[in-house]
């Protein structure tokens, strides 16, 4: 069962990202402040929740959250500053948009560049431990999936409706067959190899 909070006495925001390891598309991040009493039996790390349940949870999280926000950084920015910095920047951007300022940030992961004026706590596997981080993981994942589903209509050969830009075998084969799109990350895996080979 997920822990509802790190500290009962202060306002906490859970933060997580989605799309860090993809070959194509942006990275999305979310920040969520939940009521300390919030509980939903389906809520968990987005990777452990079915697609249907993720989309069931999203409006529930948005309706009951004290504040929530989602931000994204595109593939060009990822290539420019690297994916780790892009993930952190997207989290900072999501925190910037919160209607209520948290006193503590609960971060999924082991490192995080400080957000000015707010202390943070890094939690490895935090999206499966704390409800606010799990909620952020659900929002980041579903909003990114929506983005990739929409882009699939423009680039159907890459099956982004199925792989969401991750490095599946079929995605890598599609890249070899059809080349790179403007949404591919040129510093990642096979995309980097193809970019270097054409220079």
Tags for this model:
alpha/beta
Question: Gist?
Answer:
The protein has helices at 51-64, 75-81, 83-96, 131-154, 160-163, 169-178, 189-197, and strands spanning 12-18, 27-33, 67-73, 104-108, 119-123. By secondary structure, it is an alpha/beta fold.
What topology does this entry show?
Layout: E1 12-18, E2 27-33, H1 51-64, E3 67-73, H2 75-81, H3 83-96, E4 104-108, E5 119-123, H4 131-154, H5 160-163, H6 169-178, H7 189-197
Parallel strand pairs: 1-4, 4-5
Antiparallel strand pairs: 1-2, 2-3
| The CATH C-level class name | Alpha Beta
Treating each run of at least 4 consecutive H or I residues as one helix, how many helices?
A: 7
Largest sheet: 5 strands, mixed
What is the share of helical residues? Answer: 40-55%
Total discrete domains? 1
Provide an overview of this structure:
The protein is an alpha/beta fold and 199 residues long. It has one domain (12-154): Ribonuclease H-like superfamily/Ribonuclease H (Nucleotidyltransferase, domain 5, 2-Layer Sandwich). 41% of the residues lie in helices and 16% in strands. It is built from seven helices and five strands, in the order ββαβααββαααα. It has helices spanning 51-64, 75-81, 83-96, 131-154, 160-163, 169-178, 189-197; strands at 12-18, 27-33, 67-73, 104-108, 119-123. Strands 3-2-1-4-5 form a five-stranded mixed sheet. A hairpin with an 8-residue loop joins β1 (12-18) and β2 (27-33). The radius of gyration is 17 Å and the shape is globular. The protein starts with 11 loop residues before the first strand and ends with a helix.
